[in-house]
């Protein structure tokens, strides 16, 4: 259990509930955040919902148990939610084309902001968020739930016990996300009642934001394949890159890269060792995400399972040479999922002033690494094409 607060859900608990406004009522809201906030109902109360879909708003509102006057309000206007006196923290769970604008809007209204990764689709907008936070009474946290798992913190300690890292591997190869979502027991629904202007606006934003990231910041062609990889790295790759940074630090550079969707691989250079990052998406209903560090006499792996099915443990596996014998240890600290542990940190952050590690400055480093990958891939493409 988290050490910051006594999370004993009994009738004697006396807490000031954090009032939450959710922007975005899609899959991640329905499968993850609304249920988890409900499980932590002694600490959070959802007071406002915002989405461009009336169907999604009404569906999510009906899913939230709230007697009498506590039923969450609904709106299609993000400004209405962000300006409400009945909202302490704004959860930005919308499509990532809107993360930066909505985070800045909430900060301009002096709200605390929890934004799902990626915080933004390019460095320009990350810097805009950072500036907005500096001039706001509010503060911002980026949602990297894997880094808040207690097993992850144990793995860092175990890896810290390796005398010298010789090699490390970061892997995230998963089956179709729909498989795990459909088995989550949350029964999410999608709605197609969007106005044409909303559909067009999202498409236009995506084009401008990604082209700026690739063409302006990476000096790389915004080809169809590059655009696909940039979006996938932002959604899936940031999990791995963010965790890799906390475990091993920033890489010095790249030795090699291949971004042939639906599988891609990168070899990062660190001081004295290399790190392979391999990831991809296939049709086998399997979730294989881990970080593994190799020393001369010790190997440490943290193994993740899908976060959409609650109760699946995150485990740490330690293999050691003990007087010539193989000693294998499996550490399962808790069945409590990473999203629940992350939201406990959100409560500590807002009500107790505890700092969080996933700040906007921290998230900027992930985008720098992702751009490092795309720049290197562009150079490889040009070399294969004979372009000087």
UniProtKB/TrEMBL annotation:
Pfam families, A to Z: GFO_IDH_MocA (PF01408)
Coiled coil spans: none
GO cellular component, one term: cytoplasm
InterPro entries: Gfo/Idh/MocA-like_OxRdtase_N, NAD(P)-bd_dom_sf
Natural source organism: Phialocephala subalpina
Domain Gfo/Idh/MocA-like oxidoreductase N-terminal: 18-144
Gene Ontology biological-process annotations: NADPH regeneration
Taxon lineage: Eukaryota, Fungi, Dikarya, Ascomycota, Pezizomycotina
GO MF: nucleotide binding; oxidoreductase activity
Name of the protein described by the UniProt record: Gfo/Idh/MocA-like oxidoreductase N-terminal domain-containing protein
